[in-house]
Design goal:
There is one protein chain. The protein contains three helices and no strands. With 42 residues, it is mostly helical.
């Protein structure tokens, strides 16, 4: 019971699994997202 108090509630993102990015995006799209994020970094 006490563990429930401290655990985070599930979110739509946490329910997708660890391979959600690979299922939702192509390899090219993932590379483009990383390149975009790198350009946005200060």
């Amino acid at each position: 019971m006490m563990d429930d108090i401290y655990s985070l509630p599930p979110t739509p993102y946490s329910l997708q699994g660890t391979d959600a990015v690979e299922r939702w995006f192509t390899e090219t799209e993932m590379k483009e997202m990383v390149e975009f994020a790198n350009r946005m970094a200060v």
